[in-house]
Amino acid sequence: MRDRLYLLASEFPDAALPGRAFYCKDCITVEGLLAAFPDRAANLEVIRLPYPRPRAEIVALLGEENQNLPCLVFAEGGFANEIEALLAALHTRHGFPERHP
Fold it and tell me: At 7, phi and psi to the nearest 5?
């Protein structure tokens, strides 16, 4: 089993703000890494989910309080769903470059 990376769909509506389209800045950052380093991205199972909550697949894995995306779920258990921890895990676990301070 590989690490699974959960992202929001690149563009999504928000029912609270009708008629507008949005993206998640953290998910787009991670999408950029995947596009820039496809050889490293190939080691991940990437799953894109729709915006609305509850996000049943994540809730089933991590609980309702942990459905923030992006989220990297480790193959052996555990996860990172805060952007700094997620980027660090992509670096240490999958060889993506570090973000410059």
Answer: -130, 155
Give the per-residue pLDDT at 101: 87
- Per-residue DSSP letter, 82: S
Quick one: DSSP state of residue 77? S
In degrees and rounded to multiples of 5, residue 50 shows phi and psi of -70, 160
Alpha-carbon span 42 to 27, nearest angstrom: 17
Do residues 32 and 97 lie in contact, with contact meaning Cβ atoms separated by under 8 Å?
Answer: no
Could you give phi then psi for residue 55, rounded to 5 degrees? -100, 90
* CA dist., res. 19 & res. 28, Å (int): 21
Spell out the domains of the chain, with CATH numbers in brackets: 4-94 (3.40.30)
**Angle at which helices 83-94 and 25-36 pack, to 10 degrees?**
20
Q: For residue 39, give both structure tokens.
A: 């050889």
Q: Is the pTM of this model over 0.85?
A: yes
Which of the residues in the chain have pLDDT under 50? none
